[in-house]
Specification:
Layout: H1 3-10, E1 16-28, H2 37-47, H3 57-63, H4 73-86, E2 88-93, E3 98-110, H5 111-114, E4 125-132, E5 135-140
Antiparallel strand pairs: 1-3, 1-4, 2-3, 4-5
Helix pairs in contact: 3-4
């Protein structure tokens, strides 16, 4: 059963899908570890889908109901800020000039919006779970390809 089918069949429209994913990049030793464009592009792909995208918990925490165009510079800046507060950063020395940076982000999406996500959106996710009033339920653990 596909992930979207599981989410649709088992959970209510106002339950929250929690998607955790890690991103990796190389940065210069002189640079500060930060959220990089690949993280924001993925966040836009996940958070920008659905009829009520502005009501996804990650967006709601960031903009508190203010109408912001998804993908705009202001939107990307706000999402980068919330991800800076909630993500994990792991920095490892690679050589004399660069660090390896691993950033783990968590995105929260309403089930009603997650139903519109393509299966490819879940590729590379470390963990996909759903938060309901009755607790947190895992949908799938870490897998490389979530199209099945």
């Amino acid at each position: 059963m596909k992930i979207v089918d599981k989410i649709t069949a088992l959970f209510g429209p106002l339950d929250v899908v929690v998607i955790e994913r890690d991103f990796e990049t190389l940065i210069n030793k002189t640079d500060e570890p930060d959220i990089f464009p690949e993280c924001l592009d993925y966040a836009q792909e996940i958070l920008g889908v659905g009829e009520y995208a502005e009501r996804n918990p990650t967006c709601w925490k960031t903009f508190q109901g203010q109408p912001i165009e998804i993908g705009s510079e202001e939107w990307r800046h706000g999402i980068a800020n919330i991800l800076r507060l909630t993500s994990t950063h792991k920095v490892s020395e690679l050589d004399n000039e660069r660090y390896h940076l691993q950033v783990g982000i968590t995105l929260e999406v309403l089930v009603i919006n997650a139903k519109q996500l393509p299966a490819s959106s879940f590729n590379g996710a470390k963990c996909i779970s759903v938060q309901t009033p009755f607790g947190k339920f895992p949908v799938v653990g870490e897998q490389k390809d979530h199209t099945a």
